[in-house]
Structure formats: structure tokens, C-alpha cells
Amino acid sequence: MTLSTLLQHSLTGISLGGAYALIAIGYTMVYGILRMINFAHGDIFMMAGYFMIFSMAVVPWWVSILLVCVLTIILGVTVERAAYKPIRSAPRMSIMISAIGVSYLLQNLATYLFTALPRAYPEIPILKKIFHIGSISSSLVTFVTPVLTVLLAMGLMFLINHTKIGMAMRAVSKDMETAQLMGIKINNTISTTFVIGSFLAAIGSILYFTDRMSVTPFSGTLPGLKCFIAAVLGGIGSIPGAVVGGFIIGICETLLVAFGYSTYSDAFTFILLIIILLCRPTGLFGEKMIDKV
Amino acid sequence: MENNNLLELDNLYVSYGGIQAVKGISLTVPKGEIVTLIGANGAGKSTILRAISGLVKAESGKIFYKGEDITGKNTTSIVEKGITLVPEGRHVFPDLTVLENLKIGAYLRKDNLQEDINWIYKLFPRLQERSWQMAGTLSGGEQQMLAVGRALMSKPELIMMDEPSLGLAPIIVNDIMEIIKTINKEGVTILLVEQNANLALKIAHTGYVCETGNITLKGTGMELLSDESVKAAYLGKARRK
Question: Do A170 and B95 touch (CB under 8 A)?
């Protein structure tokens, strides 16, 4: 393999990793605040794909992007309000099972409404423009994805560490009851988390599907699981961790395919999960488990 | 109904985890006073405070604040009205800095906080020295100061404190009691729940003794300190002195 093909594949990997990172942030944030894995997140990402297909059919691409973000946010917050909020004081396992239920509901709803046949993902002309850097050539989306991911993650870190709502989110994630005693409205703070998570899933979905060209009701399952693994790899609850985890999985997967082991590329991700859970359950950047008496 | 009572509980019943923890409690907290509620573990003291804060719902009975019925209101609106709770075990936010902990205490306020932050730092110079440190790295006494400072940041008229002396060294407990007196002199009414009855009664204007969900005695701090049954049950044997 020549250097330029290696670079070419790395670039594809970084780009895929960027999309994974955006989705992984959604898992990690919800875990951080509710201590539960939102298994429906991958399916919200899939629905964002369908939203794009239908909005592009009627309005221009830049309106569609806005529309997809808004619709995905509405879906994410609705899921939280309808399926998680009523059982907030129940054991965490119940909320998790509710999340699995929502996941199947969305998949089957999509199958019922849009059939299981793959639908072509619309082309956003600007993102598809081919660019050349030296010997490497790729469409703009490949270059845009990692940059956008890093910018969004930085913006999010700023929001969490330096704004009032971010401070509230950190407080709620540590101690819900005491946060309440400060006058923080827990439900609004949790909804904000879902707004951010769903927004990033919408952006991730646009970047991901633009490269893959079709959406089925099950398009969210495997990416969803992989992004969950990315979040665990980075240390669930940590946003930089989710970004790094996303990039690692995206790059490794693409390189495995490039070296001819495409059969094992998915298996690799899951083996990674097992290894991480065995050797470093808190992940690369995870919070350390210190119990102070 | 014009009277001097800031807070009034009228025949309050609270069930908590299937157990009736508070069984018909009535008490009043006059404006500007330190009122203490003493009693053994499990007597229902904390549950009373949690019910006033809106963290648990009262089963029956009424809670009045400034003559207004606040029973069943949510915690945010209780805080807005000027009641804060310093929870048992301090519960500062461990990975927020000391300054952030103070700021989050003022979460509902939209005005400038600097003056009040300076006031808290004057009250607790230790907090100023450590303002950029994570609250989780503070000692127990410092965390208690921070928890009190955080509560003061919401500019409350009534502060409820749940076992502020718990797990602190005796010398620090004395500091905390002094601080409670200082805060009270600044015009904040205090409802203090304590197991350390001796200390609490010494600084309190009025005391209530709480046993298994009922109020069994009421009196001024001094009256209760010299009451034989209180001495026997909560202050150690009278012979000690």
C-alpha cells in the first residue's frame, strides 16, 4: 500500500470517526446526567436520516438541515418526556429497559411508515464537491466532518464549564436532590441534555449518511452500538472521551477494511469493548471511582 | 392573620418509603429566631425539613410560610420564596469549585452576586483562600462552611440546617454554632435540626423535642436544657456536671 492510499484511508477513517464522535457525545451526556444508557439514541439518529430525505424533497438543503435539527430535537425530547421522565424515580434498570423499548418502537414505526427498503439519501451538493489536497482527493464532507466535530465538542465543553446552564448540568449529574435545593429545575436541565444530544445526532446523521447514500429503519442499530462502545472506550460520562473514542473506532475500522479484513471490522469494535471492560472499565478518560467516607 | 410567625406547620403527616415518619407535627418558627428541633435518630426530624423543602410530599396537614399555604409546592418555588435547606451530610458539589458552589447557590438570582460572595468570604475567610479548589478536596468543616455559604447565596429569609455538626471535630462544631448565631444576628431566621442537643439548645431561642414522629416537648432553649427528661434522654445523665 502506498503512502497516499494510506493517507486516503486515514482521512476516510477520521471522517467516519467524527460522525461517530458526535453520536457518542449523546450517549455520554445522557449517561452523565441520568446514569442510564439511552439505547434509543441510535434510532433517533436513524430517524434524523429519514427527516432529511423528506425535507429535501420539499425544501432546499440549507432549510432541510435546520428542519432536521429541529425535528430530531423534538423527537429526542419527546422520547425523554414520554418514556423516561415518568419513571425517573424507578431503578435505573427500568429506564434502560424503557429505552430498549423505545428503540424497537422507533425501528418498527419507521418500517411501518417508510417500509424496510433502503431509501436513497439526498445529496447535499456542497458537501459532495470533490477536493484535492496533494495526491489525496475526497468530497468536502470528509474534510468538514472532523473539523465540525472538534468545533462542536469544544463549544459544548465551553457550554458545560463556563455557563450557568452548564453548571446546572454538572450539578444535576452529581447530585440531583441537592441541585433541586438550589432551585435548579431538574426536568429542564435533563431536557437540555437531550436537546444537545439530539442536535449532535442530527448533525452526525447528515455527515454519516451523506457518505453512505441510503437509510433503512435499521441503519441506526449498528452505528448506535458502535458509538455506545466509543463512549465506553473514552470513559462514559466524559465528552472529550467520547470524541477520542469515536475517532479511534472510526479510524481502526476503516484501516481494517483498507488492509482487507473487512469481515472483521465490526467484530473488532466489539472485541475492543470486551477488552476495555476487562482492563479499564472506566475507559480512557472516565471518572475515577473514589469513595470518600 | 397578622402574626410574627415566618413558618408554621399544622398537624403535618409525612410518609416516607412506606413508613409514617411524621405523625401530626405542629410547630411555629417566629421571624428572627433560632428554633431547634432535637431528637434521636429516626425521630422524623429530617423528614420534616424535607417536607418543608418540597422534596417529599406531605400526606396531610399544612405548611404556612408568611401566612401563605405552601404545602405541596415544588422545591424551586420554595427556594424562590426564600427558604433554603442545608442538607444533612453537607452535599457540596464535589467537582465544582468553591466559587462555583457559591454561584450555584444563587442559581435563581439574576442580580449581581459579587457583593454577596464578598460577604460570604468575610464570614468564612477559609473559603476565599480555597475559592478555586474543587469542593470535594475541602475538609469536612470547610465543606460545612461552604454548604452554609451556598445556602446564604440565595438570600434566604429562613435557613433550615440538617445536622450541621454531624461528623465534625468538636472545635469546628463550636465554630459552626458561632456562625449560626452570626447569621441569625444578620436577620436570617433559622430552623436547626440537631442530634447534638446540648449545643443546639444553648444557641436556640425555642426548642422542640421530637420523638418517633411526634413533638413531645416545647420550651425555650434554657427551659429544655434544664428539663430533667431532656437531660436524661439527650444531654447525658445530669450527674455528669
Answer: yes
What are the C-alpha distances in Å from A230 to residues A39, A180, A238, B7, B178? 14, 32, 11, 52, 52
In whole angstroms, what is the distance from residue A154 CA to residue A142 CA? 19
CA–CA gap between residue B215 and residue B24 (Å, rounded): 8
Instruction: Tell me whether residues A183 and B80 touch, CB distance under 8 A.
Output: yes
Question: Minimum mean pLDDT among A14-23, A135-144, B1-10, B50-59: which range?
Answer: B1-10
Q: How far apart are CA A233 and CA A220, in angstroms?
A: 19
* B5-240 is a CATH 3.40.190.10 domain: no
> CA-nearest residue of chain B to A185?
B76
Distance CA B51, CA A63 (A): 49
Instruction: List pLDDT tens digits, range A43-89.
Output: 999 999 999 999 999 999 999 999 999 999 999 999 999 999 999 88
- Give which of B80, B88, B93 to mutate to test A binding, by max A Cβ within 10 Å: B93
Alpha helices of B20-105 — where are they, by DSSP H? 45-53, 75-81, 98-105
A183 vs B91, B95, B154: nearest CB: B154
CA B111 to chain centre: 25
Query: Domain residues of chain A, as ranges?
Result: 3-279
B87 touches chain A (CB under 8 A): yes
What topology does CATH give the domain A3-279? ABC transporter involved in vitamin B12 uptake, BtuC (1.10.3470)
Please report, as a single letter, which amino acid is at residue A133. Answer: I
Distances (CA, A) of A189 to A183, A241, A278: 12, 22, 33
For B159-208, the pLDDT digits (tens) are 999 999 988 988 889 989 999 999 999 999 999 999 888 889 999 999 99
- Is the Cβ of B55 closer than 8 Å to some Cβ of chain A? yes
pTM, entire model: 0.91
Neighbours of B100 (CB within 10 A): 20
Answer yes or no: do A184 and B53 touch at CB < 8 A.
no
Among positive and negative, which fits the CA dihedral B221, B225, B228, B229?
positive
